[in-house]
């Protein structure tokens, strides 16, 4: 069965056929929602309690030109109703649409654009504060405010999904590309633009006390304390998320998160990190939570407590992770972790060169406190420092098992240098040590995959990650990590469906150049390990690369993908409305 304006994930199971889809666009219907067609109707929502609790649908795109009424937002009061944008755009905004999106309210399928010259003055293009549900809302333009400033909303205690913000954001504290302060959930969302703030500045969220999953940020972040490419200060779980911009600050600075007290899994960072003071990491500056299945390619420069992956790690464990960037600092400098206290590192590696003064190690600068362990891990970068300098650990108080280093170690203080450990108060067990002849790639894999119960953690491919080991569960972007089904086939199926629920004619636009997404606007195809990677799709000859479907017309397309996989698909129009899914 096909659905309108909903995302569905009920898969076809296929094997060796070619699928052809034919869609018939049905007639329009009348809807009970109050239509919004211009600025005056938009601003009239905020006049009394009944209107603020109403149900609205935008039925055409329009531009606002100056305020029809006063106030710092277009809709004043707490909005508790539903607002369906219909995929249309409201542009020319100079202030937020809503003062507050209340609990129980739903904002969906809405596109907003700030005034190109002025931007939005406030705490978010959609709203200052939100306690409701935000789904498929996309905003464009710059936002400038004081505290609690985000591209989409200033604060969120509800849910945000399938939404985005594009544009620069600036403020003084709790500043994020999407949300300034979030205590709710954020999923499948992104921010693209530079963020300039003070305390708690992040490419996606300034402060996150809720969960973040499958989300990303693209843009440089500059702040003071607790600054991160994705989140400035995080006490909520982060899953399968990433940050790509450069990050700079003065304390607690990380390529993904500046200060983290919760778990991070399946995530990565790519931008370089520059910290003028202490606690710097390619992924996290200061961490007290578990970090797993994550990596960074960021180079990191700081003062004290600097690590390729984490600056300071306390209590939580690091597993199945790696860092490949160069690391430069003064004291407590490590290729993976600068200072580890009462925690464990397992099945992880660092390959970047490390330069510092004291307590400098290819993997960890100082390993101290409680009963820390380094297990099944490896350091390959060259290490240079003054005292307590080691190929694996600078100053070690840990039990080391099945861990190795292979980089060249140099120091001007010969009393405190070791090719493996600079200084140690703990027994080294098993065959751990420095390798005069580095391991082969397969031998390195055996180290990193040790103890994985037969299900490997890392893999090798000369074309992926510069030939270094990469995480099977978190391969670098653009990697096709499925080697089981290489036979590429087509499948043939011909459903015809009348879409009676469409409110208007629908446009569909072909997207080129990304084989992980179907060329004809079938978005986010690969949602889990069981879903098929789209190899290609095409329109039939009588349709063009940009196809507009008037009521009653047909759309045909052919899809090719991997054999023996399930296909999860949904078509989305270029105005943001989901047309069908199955």
| CATH topology heading of one domain | Pectate Lyase C-like
Mean pLDDT: 80
Structural class: mainly beta
Largest sheet: 28 strands, parallel
Q: List low-confidence stretches.
A: 1-31, 481-557, 559-582
Shape: elongated
User: What radius of gyration results from the CA coordinates?
Assistant: 26 Å
Strand content of the residues, in percent? Answer: over 45%
End-to-end C-alpha gap: 7 Å
Number of helices: 3
Kindly state the percentage of residues in helix.
under 10%
Total beta strands = 76
Overview of this structure, please?
The chain is an all-beta fold and 582 residues long. Among the domains are: 12-28 and 485-581, no CATH class; 246-459, Pectate Lyase C-like, CATH 2.160.20. It is built from three helices and 76 strands. The strands form eight sheets. It has a 28-stranded parallel beta sheet that branches. A hairpin with a 5-residue loop joins β75 (570-572) and β76 (578-581). The longest helix is centred in the C-terminal third of the chain and has 8 residues, at 441-448. The radius of gyration is 26 Å and the shape is elongated. It starts with 11 loop residues before the first strand and ends with a strand.
């Amino acid at each position: 069965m096909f659905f309108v304006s909903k995302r569905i994930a009920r898969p076809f199971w296929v094997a060796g056929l070619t699928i052809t889809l034919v869609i018939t666009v049905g007639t329009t219907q009348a809807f009970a929602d109050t239509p919004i067609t211009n600025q005056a109707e938009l601003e009239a929502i905020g006049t009394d309690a009944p209107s603020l609790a109403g149900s609205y649908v935008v039925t055409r795109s329009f531009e606002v030109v100056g305020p029809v009424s006063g106030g710092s937002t277009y809709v004043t009061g707490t909005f508790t109703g539903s607002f369906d944008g219909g995929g249309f755009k409201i542009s020319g905004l100079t202030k937020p649409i809503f003062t507050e999106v209340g609990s129980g309210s739903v904002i969906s399928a809405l596109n907003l654009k700030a005034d190109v010259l002025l931007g939005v003055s406030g705490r978010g293009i959609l709203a200052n504060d939100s306690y409701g549900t935000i789904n498929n809302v996309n905003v464009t333009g710059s936002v400038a405010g004081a505290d609690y400033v985000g591209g989409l909303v200033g604060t969120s205690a509800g849910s945000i999904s399938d939404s985005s913000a594009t544009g620069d954001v600036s403020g003084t504290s709790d500043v994020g590309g999407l949300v300034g302060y979030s205590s709710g959930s954020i999923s499948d969302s992104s921010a693209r633009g530079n963020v300039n703030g003070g305390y708690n500045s992040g490419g996606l969220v300034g402060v996150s006390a809720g969960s973040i999953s499958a989300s990303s940020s693209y843009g440089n972040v500059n702040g003071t304390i607790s600054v991160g490419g994705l989140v400035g200060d995080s006490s909520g779980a982060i899953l399968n998320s990433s940050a790509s911009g450069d990050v700079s600050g003065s304390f607690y600075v990380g390529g993904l998160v500046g200060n983290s007290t919760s778990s991070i899994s399946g995530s990565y960072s790519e931008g370089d990190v520059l910290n003028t003071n202490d606690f710097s990491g390619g992924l996290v500056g200061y961490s007290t939570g578990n970090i797993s299945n994550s990596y960074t390619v960021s180079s990191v420069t700081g003062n004290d407590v600097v690590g390729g992956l984490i600056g300071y790690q306390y209590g939580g464990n690091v597993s199945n992770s790696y860092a490949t960037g160069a690391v430069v600092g003064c004291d407590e400098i490590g290729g993976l972790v600068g200072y580890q206290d009462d925690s464990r590192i397992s099945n992880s590696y660092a390959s970047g060169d490390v330069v510092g003064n004291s307590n400098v190690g290819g993997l960890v600068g100082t390993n101290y406190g409680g009963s820390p362990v380094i297990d099944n891990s490896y350091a390959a970068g060259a290490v240079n420092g003054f005292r307590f300098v080691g190929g694996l650990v600078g100053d070690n108080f840990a039990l080391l098992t099945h861990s190795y280093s292979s980089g060249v170690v140099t120091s001007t203080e010969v009393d405190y240098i070791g090719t493996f450990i600079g200084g140690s108060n703990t027994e080294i067990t098993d065959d751990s040590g420095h390798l005069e002849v580095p391991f082969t790639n397969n031998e390195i894999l055996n180290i990193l995959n040790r103890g994985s119960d037969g299900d490997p953690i890392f893999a090798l491919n000369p074309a992926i990650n510069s030939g270094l080991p990469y995480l099977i569960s978190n391969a670098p972007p653009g990697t096709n990590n499925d080697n089981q089904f290489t036979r590429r086939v087509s499948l043939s199926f011909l459903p015809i469906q009348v879409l009676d629920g469409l409110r208007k004619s629908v446009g569909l636009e072909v997207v080129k150049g990304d084989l992980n997404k179907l060329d004809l606007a079938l978005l986010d195809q690969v949602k889990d390990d069981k879903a098929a990677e789209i190899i290609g799709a095409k329109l039939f000859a009588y349709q063009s690369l940009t196809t507009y479907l008037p009521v009653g017309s047909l759309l045909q397309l052919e899809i090719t993908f991997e054999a023996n996989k399930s296909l999860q698909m949904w078509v989305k129009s270029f105005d943001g409305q989901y047309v069908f899914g199955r």
